[in-house]
């Protein structure tokens, strides 16, 4: 089963979910590490890798949003109260927004950087900068926005994971199971 049904997620949504989740968490860890290194050379290499995975993440999130729009969304468990259902929907949309906007703020950051280092994901092609004015002030702004968004998004990811574990171990429903297998 590749497509979703009202009873559960299909392999398309499941694979996109877990690939994006691992990539997002990996990007957070990579970003946290690269800005704390003393070696400029290693930091530069990690920044280039971070940019490459950021563009990949952006593409996968766009694909995931398209997949979501083209597929049925599984029904929520009947045991879920209306407040919890609203919180689940809000958290999912906040995650989508954060995973879409975080790479965009990173792209804006490299676009306004006075260093003017091209973005070349995995050495395959050059991604053009966004049409923005380069300046130290703009770079400072976009760096802060990117960092704040990353921390906020990782907090939402943690809450999302805790909610899934609550469903699995405490409520003993199939919410987590249906994101593991169709």
How many E-type strands?
0
- Rg over CA atoms: 18 Å
What level of helicity do the residues show?
55-70%
Shape: elongated
Order of helices and strands: HHHH
Multimerization state: single chain
- Largest sheet, if any? none
Strand content of the residues, in percent?
Answer: under 5%
What would the average pLDDT be, to the nearest integer?
Answer: 95
Describe what this molecule looks like in 3D:
The chain has 182 residues and is mainly alpha-helical. The chain contains 4 helices and no strands. The radius of gyration is 18 Å and the shape is elongated. The relative contact order is 0.14.
Task: Explain the layout of strands and helices.
Layout: H1 11-34, H2 40-70, H3 82-112, H4 136-171
Helix pairs in contact: 1-2, 1-4, 2-3, 3-4
Q: Keywords for this structure?
A:
single chain, 182 residues, mainly alpha, 4 helices, 67% helix, 0% strand
């Amino acid at each position: 089963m590749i497509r979703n049904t009202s009873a559960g997620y299909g392999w398309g949504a499941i694979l996109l979910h877990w690939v994006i989740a691992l990539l997002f968490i990996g990007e957070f860890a990579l970003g946290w590490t690269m800005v704390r290194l003393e070696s400029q050379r290693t930091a530069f290499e990690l920044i280039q890798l971070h940019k490459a995975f950021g563009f990949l993440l952006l593409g996968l999130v766009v694909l995931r949003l398209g997949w979501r729009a083209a597929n049925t969304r599984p029904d929520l468990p009947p045991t879920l109260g209306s407040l919890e259902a609203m919180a689940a929907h809000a958290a999912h949309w906040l995650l989508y927004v954060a995973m879409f906007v975080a790479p965009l703020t990173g792209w804006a950051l490299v676009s306004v950087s006075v260093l003017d280092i091209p973005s070349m994901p995995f050495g395959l092609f050059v991604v053009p900068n966004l049409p923005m004015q380069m300046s130290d002030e703009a770079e400072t702004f976009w760096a802060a926005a990117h960092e704040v968004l990353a921390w906020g998004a990782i907090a939402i990811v943690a809450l999302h994971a805790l909610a899934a574990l609550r469903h699995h171990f405490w409520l003993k429903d199939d919410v987590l199971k249906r994101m593991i297998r169709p």
